[in-house]
Design goal:
The protein is an alpha+beta fold. Helices cover 30% and strands 34% of the residues. The radius of gyration is 12 Å and the shape is globular.
Length: 92
Amino acid sequence: MPMEEKILDSIEEFNKYRAPEAKANLICFDGLVIRVEFRGPFCASCGFYDYFDDLRIIFEDMGLKTEIARIEETEDGAVVDFKLENRPEEIY
């Protein structure tokens, strides 16, 4: 499965269980960084950052080892950069 498809499938899986409280949308993927926008009423909850880690775990389940590299809080959510740690040949 192509990497971009794994990313989109991961975000779809996240939204299946977290929306409408937290909805993730892919902004871009440049081969190294996956930039995702999170929006929803979750930003007022105490587990704000847990949602980002939930998506990171889903990425890992899809064979995409990532780390959260940057979080930019916005008025109604956040934009999060997930840095891809594995090389393309390591992705199954």
